[in-house]
Amino acid sequence: MDCLREAHHGQVFRLLAQDLSGLLTVEQLADHLSDLADATLQVTLELCWKQLKGRHRDEPRFAIVAYGKLGGKELGYASDLDLIFLYDDTDDRAQEVYSRLAQRFSRWVTGRTAAGVLFDIDLRLRPQGESGLLVSSMDAFRRYQRESAWTWEHQALTRARYCAGNPGRARRSRKSATRS
Q: Which of 56, 84, 92, 158 has its CA 20 to 30 A from that of 99?
């Protein structure tokens, strides 16, 4: 966890130096910070999956979708990350396994170590908000978008994008949600 934080902080420092030197536009900086966040989240997800006990497959059928500033590739130095977790797996253990993965991932990203914190994350945009499950199946997410989502949740999808995990899962979720 410390290695991830040190690598991330080092790259942010390099971007800050370029920013202060006038070498980056605001748009370029936001793109670089967003790409760095995507890469950091992907590595974190991979490490969490490898350490997860009770995995039922070698590769997770799991996607992290970013909303807000990360979703719009407008990340700033102090931005939090608005994320939702989706899976596409019919195994009987899938809900439990992916819930544990999301919990571990969240602890890794938000946990404070000697090297600091990676990111603050906001998970309230998931279906049913804070009262909803931490992880949703693709089918449940699709149903929610078609039957229960508020107008602002449909609007938030316009800035949503895949940021880590299995890209095929995220493409499928985006297509099915935008059809509603």
A: 158
Residue with tokens 């404070």, as numbered in its chain: 112
pLDDT at 175 (0 to 100)? 55
- Which residue carries 């970013």 as its tokens? 66
SS (H, E, C) the chain: CHHHHHHHHHHHHHHHHHHHCCCCCHHHHHHHHHHHHHHHHHHHHHHHHHHCCCCCCCCCCEEEEEEHHHHCCCCCCCCCEEEEEEECCCCCCHHHHHHHHHHHHHHHHHCCECCECCCCEECCCCCCHHHCCCEEEHHHHHHHHHHCCCHHHHHHHHHCEEEEECHHHHHHHHHHHHCC
- Between CA 134 and CA 49 the distance in angstroms is 16
pLDDT at 169 over 60: no
| Strands 62-67, 81-87: pairing kind | antiparallel
pTM for this predicted structure = 0.88
